[in-house]
Records
---
Amino acid sequence: MSVAVGSPDMINRVETLKRDHGRLRVLLGACDGASPVELPGLMRQLHDVFIPHQRAKEQLYDVVVAACQESKDATSLTLLNIFRTNLTVMSNAVLGFFSHVDSDPERLRQRFRTVSAALRSLMDTEEKSVFPLCLRQQTRMKQPAQALRIQTLSSPSWQAGGR
Amino acid sequence: MSFVPPKDMSVLDDTERMSSFDAPLLESSPDPELQALVTEATALTGFPIGLVSLVVRKIQFFRAQVGLPPDLSATLATDRCTSFCQFVVARGGPLEIEDTSREPGLPRDLVERYGIRAYVGFPLKVRGQTVGSFCVIGAQPARLTAEVLTKLEQLAGRASARLEALAGQTPAPASSSEAEEKARNAWLAVAEAQPLLSLSERFADGQMSFEEFQRGLGALAGLTDSSD
């Protein structure tokens, strides 16, 4: 697990998620300004982008939470668990909303504003707190991992050709 | 000691009552008219906190507020089950608590978490349904005079009229079909989860301490407990 966190893979994951956020924000903007006829179709597009994005985010949390547990970083672990819970609660709610679309266009438009605001808030918080926390955790994990590798390469048993 | 919780709280989950809640009612952007009414209520009573509290499915949502601590002014909500306002809705009538320390029948969570000692709430009505409570909250035991209570009730009436106008911005359901109920409940789940995000956003912005953040989360524990 520490290998995954300590690798450049973490930076790539976070960058990919940030790019997803960009796509989601564009779609949210389109939904916000959509006519009642356009909105359901745009919501389907949003749904299709949101599902794999949410799964990728859950995987990120799994990796970083495991790393925090290994490093016994209780504060980061508490924060990550809080943010992960928020993600779960809100994702389940948003997916439910996508599954039960209201038949009245004006009511749907009004209700969508709540969903749009919620998704924007979730993404803003992740960019301000969660992603930096993941990257900080990566840096912390990387240092002992490198130290361990150097020690191994220069260890007497290695130099003696032993193993 | 005078408070006895109503035996039947089922009205809280009544489908018709739930159908009163829609987007304009549960919006978190401040409504100046409701805001002015809660401010007037605190000036009238001398109580530090004034609320337009809407008692929804899992939470009580503060549509207008004055005097809340930072965590609650971020979430604008607490769990419904810990609220006093749920009893105003269940009774369909006012509730006056002079000293919470002498009322063992009340939920203790908000008393202990925020030091609530006195509470006076009047029902808020929309489309004939009691949707919440117009209330004032004090940190010291207190008893309001009959004259002040009458004026407070009048303010509650004005708040109800404003909520009615807000509710009128959403098309009423043509029929109470199962599909419409599912759509409303699905949207309500998003609306009720939003306090968690507001709290996190405020914390991420550095506008509250970790302790305040955790206290706010504690007041919304019901939202996360039922997430599984």
---
Amino acid sequence: MRSVWEDSNRLVLSALTLLLTLGLCVMILAPLVQILAQSFFDATHRFVFLDNFIDYLSQEKSLRLIRNSLFVALTSTLIVVPSAFGFAYALMRSRMPLKPFFRYVAFLPLLAPSLLPAISFVYLFGHQGFFKPWMGGSTIYGAWGIVLGECFYVFPHIVMIFLSALSLSDARLYEAAQSMGASSLKKFFTITLPALKYALVSATLVSFTLVVTDFGVPKVIGGDFNVLATEIYKHVIGQQNFALGATVGVLLLVPSVVTFIVDSFVQRKQKAVLGSKFVLYVPQKAPIFDTAMLIFALVIALFFLIVLGVSFFASFVKFWPYDLSLVLKHYDFSSMDGGGWDSYFNSLSLAFWSALLGTIAVFTTAYVVERGKVFPHLRAFLKLLALLPMAVPGLVLGLGYIFFFNHPDNPLNALYQTMGILVVCTVAHFFTASFITATTTIKQIDDEFEDVAESMGVACYETFFKVIVPIATPSILHIARYFFVNAMTTVSAVVFLYAPSTTLASVAVLNMDDAGDISSAAAMASVIVATSLVITLAFDMLSHVALKQSQQWRKAR
Amino acid sequence: MVLKKSILAVTGLMLATHMFAAKESITVYTALESDQVKPYLEAFKKAQPDIEVKIVRDSTGIITAKLLAEKENPQADVVWGTAATSLVLLEQNGMLEPYAPAALKHIDAKFKDTKTPPAWVGNDVWGSAICVNEVEAKKQNLPIPTSWEDLTNPVYKGKIVMPNPASSGTGFLDVTAWLKIFGEQKGWEYMDKLHDNIGQYTHSGSKPCKMAASGEFPIGISFEYRAAKSKKEGAPIAVVFPKEGLGWDLEATAIMKGTKNLKTAKTFVDWATGEDANKLYAENFAVVAYQGLSKPIEFIPSNYASMLIDNDFAWSAKNRESILKEWSKRYESKSEPKK
């Protein structure tokens, strides 16, 4: 009896592993290979193998660009990882007031198209900005502007990783430490941090790669401070030189490969924290600590609110900075770039499908990779595929999609020019961060659950739907929300893929700003932020209900 | 699995809706400003009510990159109102279908491809212009420049923004114009001096004028349509046309090779290069390709046409890479951000 169950479980898992690998190959690998292969050809399509790389790296300029990219990525990471950790820690481990408020504020940057902070920074710190008199002649355009913008942009991604890791800490360990008389500091260093090792490494790598590959922030606020990601923009959009664009794209893949190697190394040392006897940690009152955490959270929240508020304000101003009277006309998008309100509804539909299909794809992939038990090498490969998209600049991914999906011999050709391809591309583009969240969660669920289930002759999908999914519900809802809000704001990949009937609000923001209609761009961006905020609230209500329904057992003891 | 099934379902739905589309329809890629596209298309609809035009509109760089990436299986039937330099690039890739539109003999010889039949035909001219913020100029005691040479005056140190020629077509046409006006050697010497005054090289061609309009930098080297539009919207700027001459490019139209709708595409191009369409272009641009239709435009001097330099699109296209390499060597390598 038992072996029959084992066999059918293996069959289901094998089929699933194969299907997911095939799916990710189509969504991620094939388009990438198509575009990256270009880096081995010159402008006249002659095969030159590594000449492009040798050529590129031998220029004095390239080394400076690499140095610049490393500088902003390292600086941003050094700022963002500790502050995001502090923020997540304050939310999970202190009893500061206003927690729900801070939770929303932490995710605000995720809701905003990347142009929005750029518009705000110029209004705040530019030559005509509010804070100009206090800036002492220094300028926002350049390395520090990029670092500031990247910190804003990366923060929620990193908070998400820490929140999900911190939410699964076992109270029993702290109780034991307490009874042995350990100080809070000692508990932090011997229990909290070791349990978070994996999350810390992930957070650092995610932050580093996100900054290195982002071109939105450096493009608008970087001034003459060029980085590798903007170099791709110059080659591809400015000069239509795909070969050189792809060459730089390959260089940007290096961090992702490093992520994979480091990650698999750390993984071996990671042990499940959430056992079947798990008890949820509930923080104790600690007035001094709570106040300190509150002040820290307030400073960050204030910064985020100001950045968003300025753009929101700007969307009503008649002509910045010379005519500050307030008008509503910028919300009439009919004569503007990008398809107006139609684009907005297209974006909603893209966000809905990406959230639905993306969450299913990501969570199943993470589960198979972590608990699949079959085809160990294939699963390692699947994991590499899942980690790859983070390192791929959207521009490169988008072009790869054209080359791959628009090829006349591709049977998936019918997808081209439809909402379908936008959904697939968006899911692929934002796969990695959600995948890491899902993996972190699944890792922390004790595999005793599966062992027990299997010995009782329960089918693996039953364990999956009745045990794993309910435990992971908060994390699954995080992922769905993450896909939704990113689909609302994404530009870089989809800008090449939208068709006349599938124009998008996020692209409209970019185009309106490009056409000089900054106020309308700010207005559309504000509409996007408001929508995502409503959706976030809805998700949280869902999450609340789900928690009540499915996480009872946590309190049961 | 679920993912794939659902995608197929979505795709099926979309295909189904496609089948009910009008019987004659073409896909047109354009880099025209969208506030221009709307009235143009309404006019076309009046002339040809049975043809549905599906528009993909984006910036010149995106449209060109998209067209090149789709080379194996072109989605566009027509490229309309897109930089002639881009169309030359497409032609070099063998992607254009030569066609002599009905009104060809009325088109100024300077504003079309030299071959017969031409691979592309121009619509209107867009050229360099300088936006100067008058409020800021007064505040910072800056004289209003009247020539390219004036911009090298040390009083403007750090006050000027211009598009980076490596990422913007507008930036590139300025650089080629200076090389033409001053000659190769003097041209680079001029840019050396100008570089000392540049506060920032931007990625897009309209950004410098926008920055000037909002006073972020007092002077922006941009192009005349953006300048006139900003001024009309109430920006306190003076639009300066440097007296040495103006670099320019064309917004031009061509048929994509391999289009499945060649007849409809020809109908559209006949209209887009014809008298009625050119009359509409003349509302927005001081110089249009159809002879005798150009008329004065607000904020643009009446002698605008005579200020345009002699352009050689083939020369620009051929030397683009070497010019950009030289430019980048001179100004990007040594330009660590100014503190």
